[in-house]
């Protein structure tokens, strides 16, 4: 849930002010991942080297500078420049080589405060500094051990054990070297220290280490949390692979800049050449050379030369404009209005309207596995939050066209129950980021049980994309607003295309499939039409902004729409809202209905619309304050006495209707949030990518 960032310039002279701004901008791009507190670490003036600590330890370079602050990134920026003025910190000083690290936090252990912010330190002299995204599950055991060895802890975080453990490992390894006749402490490689630390850690993490014992060196590692390396060279000449030892040796001394980040958003403005760090890989940057090692837990301890790996660079398929607001006030607003384009990108090249009116779907990532999925004993959709709702919205069409039973699982609940999964099952994992911690754990569980695992994500190279047997990228484009909007509609579109592909061998459903495909081609223009309701939704939001609660009733395809509407309203506008299956209304929820409680009923034309008419009449009989969403032209039949507020939307095939229906409700949630005075892009207590459990 946190965001980590690092910038290393080698033989590329940069002023401290420039380095600081690179770090701050990196954090701004990652702030959607957490915004409780933040911090950075910089190199001190090199003229102060070497430096002796009060403990007697001699540092080859002076202790790094650390700046931490509670609150948003701009709080850190303000206090940094204030402190720089007070301490006469030289911002014009130039560094030929420099290592800076940065962190933006979503609190898990300890409340937001400067002390609990990262970078976390080993103690006096900042001998080891760490920024961390993830959770260390055995931190209490490690803390007790370190306390017995004389370490003192200042923060409440799980992260603080990591730099202190690094200091303990460093001292222990050097004692061993000294007893064996070693002389120079730097004969202990930085990577060896980090790997010994990794050996003791349990949980999920992406870590970046900095130490004055290893000036101008940076070590990063990951297990479960995302991490990317960006590469920028003078002249921008490309080098295709990195391998330990001779990596870029031919260009040794050539100016280079490296960027490490939790997300490509923080890298794309500097370079599009990236490397996705794999689990249990250790990346070491020194003297302009990148070395990548594979950490093996089961190997003998203190392996002095671990196995190196060769990796290929890839090119980011995104533009800087995608991570900017453009003419919109907020990212959520921008992403809602981008949905005609994002849906076009999702379906581009996948829908076939060939000669002689032949229609079909081509999903390249699944074509070799469709037969296996059709023969599955059942299909299991696994996700969390909005991704779960997207799968739920598409479940009926999967069952209809494939004939395979479909079950829904919330990832965390599946793991808690250890629900049965069999070799004959197909497990489909839906996640916008591809890094959702609970969904990743469910993926490991499903793979261990032999199921075919399919991934549906928005992030190329993500953990779910790499860990599944096959999958589909939704190609919705970068989504920065914490509340997912365009990813939701693109996920539904992809799952519907999956249903079309699964039913492609059935003659009996051909006419139905062709009708759906025709409407898929028209879907972006229909979404563009429904976006014209923006002002109407703002007016409705003005009527609802003082309310404390909202109910949303849906059924059939639109039960998921009700859940998603309620989720959007509660997560950004901080208004209590609940999505309810309309068929369950009389089993409890009807008791809440009175003339003051606003209720949205989704009653667009489908197989359940007549039942929804009955629901509307029952709610009106209890003096319910109704807002009815219906198909264009149905307002009179749904609410003949004109007492309901009506939202009319275009009609498409029933399985595609949830894509149309959710758009005005997203706009409603957006306007409610703005009118209530809350931060729509950074809602309270939430972050974009849930990479902790």
Structural notes for this entry:
- There is one protein chain.
- With 693 residues, the chain is of the alpha/beta class.
- 34% of the residues lie in helices and 23% in strands.
- The longest helix is centred in the C-terminal third of the chain and has 21 residues, at 510-530.
- The termini are close together.
- Mean pLDDT is 89; it is low at 237-250.
- Its EC number is 2.6.1.16.
- It holds the Pfam family SIS.
| Beta-strand segment tally | 32
**Largest sheet properties:** 8 strands, antiparallel
Low-confidence parts lasting 5 or more residues at pLDDT below 50? Answer: 237-250
Strand order of the largest sheet: 6-3-8-1-15-13-16-20
Strand content: 15-25%
Number of helices: 19
**Helix percentage:** 25-40%
The computed structural class is: alpha/beta
Overall residue-averaged pLDDT value: 89
Shape: globular
Keywords: Aminotransferase, Glutamine amidotransferase, Repeat, Transferase
GO molecular function: carbohydrate derivative binding; glutamine-fructose-6-phosphate transaminase (isomerizing) activity
Pfam family, one: GATase_6
Domain Glutamine amidotransferase type-2: 2-288
